[in-house]
Design a protein that fits this description.
The structure holds two protein chains of two kinds.
Chain A: E1 4-6, E2 11-14, E3 19-25, E4 33-38, E5 45-50, E6 54-58, E7 61-66, E8 71-76, E9 85-93, E10 99-102, E11 106-111
Parallel strand pairs in A: 2-11
Antiparallel strand pairs in A: 1-3, 3-8, 4-5, 4-9, 6-7, 7-8, 9-10, 9-11
Chain B: E1 5-7, E2 10-13, E3 19-24, E4 31-37, E5 44-50, E6 53-57, E7 64-68, E8 74-78, E9 87-94, E10 104-105, E11 109-113
Parallel strand pairs in B: 2-11
Antiparallel strand pairs in B: 1-3, 3-8, 4-5, 4-9, 5-6, 7-8, 9-10, 9-11
The chains are: A mainly beta, B mainly beta.
Chain lengths: 112, 114
């Protein structure tokens, strides 16, 4: 079992809709979770961090964490074509939780 | 722009050759991590350097090695290249002691092994 699992997609949503991206993880001791966005040919950029159970909102993005179910999600409201990218779920791991363990990513396309 | 730079941008090598990739960390950052991202996959942690010492390593063979210099720039060396080494190699820098999400990724080096 992979440490971080994501649906690879591709996921397509119409412009203005809500995009829902999901991620599960295997290590119950994980404490810190992140969502990165990666445009084609570019490096990942951090869009959300979440550490506590519940929801965390930042603009059009909402991250949700459920440690009991080992589940993290990202909701993108009012999706825009510029949101089309691969979204990577990651958690902090290793010595002192300084390294990132990534899922394989979900490719999102927002259709105009 | 994150302030982290990598060179070269693209590189083509043949199987069995050796390659050196370079990373300049953001000003003030003394920790550099390297990741390998194969096509269609997420980045995988290779190793991390803090103040010129390796202080964390992922599941990569010894032919992947690195260095960090006094100015905190870093090199990734890969010996005896294999076809599966073809990937985007990313470096990320942060301040020592800072949490994982404060690291900034460079633009990457695309390595193709033929």
């Amino acid at each position: 079992q992979k440490e971080v699992e994501q649906n690879s997609g591709p996921l397509s949503v119409p412009e203005g809709a809500i995009a829902s991206l999901n991620c599960t993880y295997s290590d119950r001791g994980s404490q810190s979770f992140f969502w990165y966005r990666q445009y084609s040919g570019k490096s990942p950029e951090l869009i959300m961090s979440i550490y506590s159970n519940g929801d965390k909102e930042d603009g059009r993005f909402t991250a949700q964490l459920n440690k009991a179910s080992q589940y993290v999600s990202l909701l993108i409201r009012d999706s825009q074509p510029s949101d089309s990218a691969t979204y990577l779920c990651a958690l902090a791991s290793g010595r002192a939780a300084r390294q990132l363990t990534f899922g394989s990513g979900t490719q999102l396309t927002v259709l105009p | 722009e994150t302030g982290v730079t990598q060179s070269p941008t693209h590189l083509i090598k043949t199987r069995g050759q050796q390659v050196t990739l370079r990373c300049s960390s953001q000003s003030g950052h003394n920790t550099v991590s390297w990741y390998q991202q194969a096509l269609g996959q997420g980045p995988q942690f290779i190793f991390q350097y803090y103040r010129e010492e390796e202080n964390g390593r992922g599941n990569f063979p010894p032919r992947f090695s690195g260095l960090q210099f006094p100015n905190y720039s870093s090199e990734l060396n890969v010996n005896a290249l294999e076809l599966d080494d073809s990937a985007l190699y990313l470096c990320a820098s942060r301040s020592g002691g800072a949490p994982a999400d404060t690291q900034y990724f460079g633009p990457g080096t695309r390595l193709t092994v033929l």
